[in-house]
Amino acid sequence: MKADVLSIENKKAGSIDLDDGIFGLEPRKDILHRCVVYQLAKRQQGTHKTKERNEVSGTTKKFGRQKGSGGARHGNRKAPLFRGGGKAHGPRPRSHAISLPKKVRQLALKHALSSKAASGSLVIIDEAKMENAKTKTLVDALSKLEISNALIVDASVDEHFGLATRNLKGVDMLPVIGANVYDILRKDKLVLTKAAVEGLEARLK
């Protein structure tokens, strides 16, 4: 499929052929959902922890008689039902990561790119480079392209362009190797450079 290439000043800078096997698929929500769940689960810290009965400080002395109190039989006050006692079956540090085959992850990335292309939210520019790291200059350029919330992907992040986007709300920049399903889907638009298109096609073939 053919796509127009624009300059950062929103002027036509030629056209490019996009691989139908990467940008022309019918997006499948189930595959995209599986990959997003995989990514979000993997980045959870899993450091939540509560003290259990054996970790609470306190005496283990039996505080009441076994019989004759008219109440239940208790050993010590570290039991979960007492105030200050341990938590029963509380959370422990663990990994929340789930497994997802590499081929499914690659397919999900193809469907994410295809969904942006199908919805008209894919913008291709010739290059993402700036002479100086001025955020205001970048804001003016992106406003010409009608971009306010987007993910910009390049083969490698230009130093000045990367610094300019760092202070810009709603706009993120990633190299080709860092392009992922979650970041693509959570932004309104996807901006790819010609080098990024070539890099993604090489990565996903």
UniProtKB/TrEMBL annotation:
GO biological process: translation
Gene Ontology annotations for the cellular component aspect, listed alphabetically: ribonucleoprotein complex; ribosome
Keywords, sorted A to Z: Ribonucleoprotein, Ribosomal protein, RNA-binding, rRNA-binding
SUPFAM superfamilies assigned to the protein according to its UniProt record, in alphabetical order: Ribosomal protein L4 (SSF52166)
Annotated spans, Disordered: 43-99
Matching InterPro entries: Ribosomal_uL4 (IPR002136), Ribosomal_uL4-like (IPR013005), Ribosomal_uL4_dom_sf (IPR023574)
GO-annotated molecular function: rRNA binding; structural constituent of ribosome
SUBUNIT field: Part of the 50S ribosomal subunit.
Function description: Forms part of the polypeptide exit tunnel. One of the primary rRNA binding proteins, this protein initially binds near the 5'-end of the 23S rRNA. It is important during the early stages of 50S assembly. It makes multiple contacts with different domains of the 23S rRNA in the assembled 50S subunit and ribosome.
Family label: Belongs to the universal ribosomal protein uL4 family.
HAMAP family reported for this sequence: Ribosomal_uL4_B (MF_01328_B)
Protein name as annotated: Large ribosomal subunit protein uL4
Upper lineage: Bacteria, Pseudomonadati, Pseudomonadota, Alphaproteobacteria, Parvularculales
